[in-house]
Amino acid sequence: MTNSTAEAVICGAGIAGISAAYFLTVKHGIKNVVLVDERPPLSLTSDKSTECYRNWWPGPGEAMVSIMNRSIDLLDEWARETQNVFNLNRRGYVYATADPARVEEFKRSGAECSALGAGPVRVHDGSASAPPYEPHHAEGFASPLTGADLILDPQLIREHFGYLSEETLAVLHARRCGWFSAQTLGTYLLEQAKAHGVNVVAASVESVKTENGRVSQVRLNNGDTLGTPIFVNAAGPFLDKVGRLTGVELPVFSELHTKMAFPDLARVIPREAPFVIWADPQFVPWTEDERAYWAESAETRWMLERFPAGAHFRPEGAGASPMVLMLWDYHKDAVEPVAEPKLPPDFPDMVLRGLSTMAPGLRQYFDRMPRVSLDGGYYTKTRENRPLIGPLPMEGAYVMGAFSGFGVMVAPGAGELLAAHIVGAELPRYEAAFRLARYGEAEYQKLLENWGSTGQL
After folding, report:
1. pLDDT classification of 319: cutoffs 50, 70, 90
2. Residue 239 main-chain phi, psi, to 5 deg
3. What is the C-alpha to C-alpha distance for residues 133 and 178, in angstroms, rounded to an integer?
4. Alpha carbons 418 and 412: distance in angstroms, whole number
C-alpha cells in the first residue's frame, strides 16, 4: 500500500476521461493527474463506437449544436496537427425516408437545426432555381460545407444514392459530419497527456473521502490512497455507481448497444458512401413462413411488431475492405451494465433485414449470410439524452458522462469544458445546459415534460 498525492484523480480511462486529462495537463499545465481504470484505456465502451460525429442536433436550445461544433473545431485542429493520423473524414450523415409525412419533418427539423447554428439548408427539388448539389468527398475534412442538403429530386437521389430503395422520397445530407478512428485519436491524446504529467493506474476507485466538506482523498482497490483536491467521475457505464461514492444519485440509465461488422462481398454499399440512416419506423420484412413461425411463440412474437426508425450503416476499413458497420438500436430496455455484456443472438438477422428496407440489394444475403462479427457496449444516458459535465454538490467533485451514443463526438468539447470548470477558466455560454444542477430548476423540469426529439439515432 502506498500513500501519494495528485492534483486531480480521474476515474475512467475511456475517451471521456482521456480528453479531460489531456485538457488539464496539455492545455492548463496541471502536472500531476492520475487516470484510474481497472481496464486498459479506451476499452469497455469507447472501443465499441461507430466513431462518427455530427453537429446536426435538435433543441430545445442551441447547447448540443454548440458543443458539437466546438468538438468538431478541435477534431479539425488535431487532424491538422497530426497530418490527419486518425483519418477524419467529412462524408456527412444521410437521413433517408419513404414516408411523405417524414419529408415535411425533414423540412421542419432542417429549419430547426439551421436556426440553432448547424448551418444553412439547401433545397434541391429539381426546379430551375434550385442550387447545384455538391457531392461529398470520400477522404479529407477540409470541406467548407455546413448545414445540410435536402434532396427532393428523385433523379438526383438515384444519381448519388442509387443503392437506396426506389421508394425513397427525400434525402437529408447533413454536411459537418463524418467519422474517424477514435482509438487512434484517443491514443494520441493519451500519449500527449502522459508526456505532460498524466499517470495511468490499473485499479478501481473504492472510496472518495472528504475533509471540511470537500474532496481530500481517493482510495483504490489495490490499497493505494491518493491525496487530492479534485475527483472526476468519468466512469462511463458505471457513472451512477461511482457517483454514489461522492454522495450523489446521478439521473442516468444504460441501454445495450450492439453493432455488426458485415462483409459486403457483393459491394451493395459503395466504399465511398456516407453514414446512412433510415428515418422511418418499419416492420421487419419477414417471409410469410417466417412470420407464421415467429407468431407461434410468445417469446418471439415481438419480432413481428413495428420497429423504431434509425437503422443505419457506414463503410468500414481502408482501400478494398468489404466491411460495413451495421446498427439498429431496437432494444431500448434499461439494463445493468456488466464488463462482458451478452449480445442478442437475433441481432444479425434483424439488422440485416431492417437495413434491406433502405438498401434492397442487401436482400441477396438473406439465405446465405456471410460470417459476421458482433461487439457491444452501452449507451449511458439521461432521460433527455443530454450529457452531464460539470461540478457535483461535493466540493472538488466533478462529473463527465452520460454520453449515450455520442461519446467520441462530444468528448473533445466536453473535456475542454470540464477542465475549464476545474481550473476556473472562462466557460462557454452553453455550459449550464450540461450541469447536474439543471434538474433542480423549475424551468428545466417544465422542458422535460414536453421535450420532443432527443436526437438519438
Report:
1. confident
2. -55, -45
3. 18
4. 10
Nearest to 310 by CA among 177, 97, 457: 457
The 10s digit of each residue's pLDDT in 91-141 is: 999 999 999 999 999 999 999 999 999 999 999 999 999 999 999 999 999
Across the beta sheet with 198-201, what order do the strands follow?
198-201, 33-36, 8-11, 231-233, 397-401, 388-391
Residue whose C-alpha cell reads 500531476 in the numeric block: 32
Provide the 8-state DSSP code for 223: S
pLDDT tens, position by position, 54-95? 999 999 999 999 999 999 999 999 999 999 999 999 999 999
Grid coordinates representing 332?
A: 431500448
Domains of the chain: 3-51+182-251+383-449 (3.50.50.60), 93-176+254-377 (3.30.9.10)
Q: Is the Cβ–Cβ distance between 244 and 27 less than 8 Å?
A: no
Give me 230's grid cell: 479534485
Sign (positive or negative) of CA dihedral 413, 416, 422, 427: negative
What are 121-131's pLDDT values in tens digits?
999 999 999 99
The pLDDT tens digits for 368-420 are 999 999 999 999 999 999 999 999 999 999 999 999 999 999 999 999 999 99
Count how many residues are written for the chain.
457
Give residue for cell 449515450.
404
Q: Do β-strands 205-211 and 198-201 pair in parallel, antiparallel, or remain unpaired? A: unpaired
Which three-class secondary structure state does DSSP give residue 81?
A: helix
Is the distance from CB of 421 to CB of 434 less than 8 angstroms? Answer: no
Through-space distance between the first and last CA atoms of the chain, rounded to whole angstroms? 46
Fill in the amino acid letter for 390. G
What cell does 52 get?
462518427
Which residues share a beta bridge with 100? none
pLDDT at 1 over 60: no
